[in-house]
Amino acid sequence: MKPTIAKKIISIAVTGVVVSSVTILCISTILMSGLLNRTVHDDIATMQSVILKTQKQEESRLLHNISIVSTMPEFVDAVYTQDAQNIKKLAQFFLRQLEIDSVAVTDADGIVLARGHSDQVGDSFSQRSTWIAARNGDIRAGILYDENAIIPYTIRCDAPILKDGAIVGVISLALDIGSEEYLDNMSEMTGLHFTLFKGDALFMTSIKDAGGNRTIDTNLGDSRIMDALLENDENVIERIEILNEPYMVAYWLIRDIEGEVLGMWAIAKPLTVQVRQTGNVLLIVISCSLVIMFVLVIVSGFFGKKITNPIRKVIDYAVNMADGNLDQPLNVKNRDEVGALAGALQTMVATLKKRMESIQDANDATQSANKAKSAFLTIMSHEMRTPLNVIIGLTDLHLEESELPLSVSDDIRKINKAGNILLSIVNDVLDISKIEAGKLELLPVQYNSASLLNDVITLNIIRIESKPIEFHVDISKDLPCEFFGDELRIKQVFNNLLSNAFKYTHRGTVTLCVDCERGDGDDIWMRISVSDTGIGIRQDDLKKLFSDYNQVDTKANRKIEGTGLGLSITKKLIELMGGSITVESEYGKGTAFRVRIMQKGVNDKLIGTETAESLRDFRYSDNKQEHAAKLVRADMSYAKVLVVDDVQTNLDVATGMMRKYKMHVDCLTSGQEAIDRVRSEEPVYDAIFMDHMMPVMDGIEAAKRIRAIGSPYAKNVVIISLTANAIAGNEQLFLESGFQAFLSKPINIMNLDTVLRRWVMDKSKEPPATEAPPKPESNKVLSIRGIDEKKGLALYAGDLELYTAILRSFAANTPTVINKLRHVTEETLPSYATNVHGLKGTSSSIGAENIRERAARLEAASKAGNITEVLAKKDALVKDADALVADIKEWLRKLDSGNAKPRLPAPDLELLKNLWQCCEKFDMLGIDKAMDKLDSSSYEKGDRLVTLLRERIGISDFSAAVELIKKYEEQI
Question: Which contiguous run of DSSP H or E holds residue 406?
Answer without folding.
Answer: helix 406-429
